[in-house]
Specification:
Elements: E1 11-12, H1 18-34, E2 38-39, H2 48-57, H3 64-84, E3 89-93, H4 99-108, E4 112-117, H5 120-133, E5 142-143, E6 161-165, H6 175-189, E7 194-200, H7 205-212, H8 218-234, E8 243-246, E9 249-250, E10 255-262, E11 266-270, E12 273-277, E13 282-289, H9 293-302, E14 306-312, E15 318-324
Parallel strand pairs: 1-5, 2-13, 3-4, 3-6, 4-5, 6-7
Antiparallel strand pairs: 7-15, 8-10, 9-10, 10-13, 11-12, 14-15
Helix pairs in contact: 2-8, 3-4
This protein binds N,N-dimethyl-L-histidine.
N,N-dimethyl-L-histidine is lined by residues 57, 65, 167-169, 171-172, 212, 219, 286, 288.
Amino acid sequence: MPTTRSVPAAISLGAQNFAAAAQAARADLAAGLRQNPARIAPKYFYDELGSKLFEAICLLDEYYLTRAEAALFAAHGPAIAQAAGQGVTLIDLGAGNCAKAASLFPVLRPEQYVPVDISAEFLRNAVAKLQSAHPDVPMLPLGLDFAETLKLPPAVRLKNRLFFYPGSSLGNFTPLQAAQFLTRIRAEAGPDGAILIGIDLVKDEAILQAAYDDALGVTAAFNLNVLRHANRLLGSDFSGADWRHIAPFNAAQHRIEMHLEARRDVVVTWPGGTRAFAAGERIHTENSYKYTRRAFTELLESCGFTAITGWSDPVGTFLVCHARAI
Ligand code: AVI
């Protein structure tokens, strides 16, 4: 008979004070809208609808990233497990529905699973399902904005920590922010810690552009939805009909950029502020950096990681790396 294990309530380590968090979001959004060019940070994509739209993006023919990474996990699972060693403490950054980590459970056989996500409530449901499928694996869900802090509570085992950061999420940081984030992971990894990370590789511009501007318009809806979310958080009066999604590739910076471009002259107001946009003016909403295999290996090395093993497909679509913290 398998043992049954009850799922601990997700520990919320982020801002406990919702009023303060809401005020900080308003200040952040208003400051971004006053910049030239205006900005809305990509974290505001992920309200309830935005999270569903992102799940839909991952199913699109054009958005190859999710499938390419899953294929690498499936093909190289045993080699990944060998690099990781036995008895890992699997710390899943941005766990969401926990599906990617769950696909590696049979080969990694973690001693403890620590899914981390900004939404503790979302995690609780996903972890409850996973716990019933894997009753022997202790699970400790953490509600934490890990881009702000990576300090983990003492209940997270220090032994064999394996930070799992899939999906090319590191690509949404600038190279400097990415280096700072990797350095923090290394500091939290402990003496026998490691990272398992997936990153998208530079490729033909047409493939990249299709991935971020799909024929069904799902990515356009994902980008435009940030305005609905801003309206709720800031009290602004954006109308989605005034804006169009664009996703150019910036070859000099190796990144896809997402912007919202004003279709006509627009004036946006919110309590305490206003901003006029001329037709054609843009709001920058996201960067998605693409790396060469060499540049990514050098980035890991520059952050102190060693014993780097990388797995890619023959045409170099995507890269999964395991690296030791010391
Ligand atoms: C979450 N992140 C890795 C995605 C990406 O590819 O940069 C977000 C995304 N933006 C548009 N499509 C997907």
